[in-house]
User: Fold this.
Amino acid sequence: MKPKHKQLIVVTISLIVTGLLVWGALWIIFAVWRRFAALNESLAVGLLTAASTILVATLTITLGRYFERKKEVEAHFREKKSAIYDSFLTAYFKFTHTESRENVDQVAFLREWQREVILWGGATVLTTYLKWMAHLKKGVPDAQSMFLMDDFFRAIRRDLGLPNRGLERGAFIRLMLRHPDVFFLMARTNPNVKLDAVAQKERDLGLEE
Assistant:
């Protein structure tokens, strides 16, 4: 289920629950009104006014505290997720630079990071990460491995509440490659083009630094 759909369902359920509470409160008020109106109209008006004031105040405070608590929990989760995702991106960008690879214990880092992301990561983030890792384990880096990485990065942004509207698929690949235009040109022709072939094409074009 997409995050937007999940959020829509949560909002819809919240509105339904709120509507039911209001409906129940009004039903009680009218029931009490009918009881007292049959006895003493002046007394009924006074009691109804007092009851309405108390009920509205109680509902306002209760709902206010509920939504405030909900926002606090969401903020806590977002802060925790942000730290976990940032630690992965920091290590990943270090590892993708040849001169920094010896400073990153990839296996130990991934073991600990995967433990944390199981506890705190969003479902879409986990799904895209698992697809990316499954493809990488085939041991043949190709265009799909780059696009799956891009999907993972986009899922991270969505899970943190950041929009991806306007970002074409593959936008983050441009951050990883020195000559991304060559990659995209070859990937359009062959979606499974190997990265070694892309590197060779760059050398043929005299683009290698």
In short: The chain is about 75% helix and 0% strand. The radius of gyration is 28 Å.
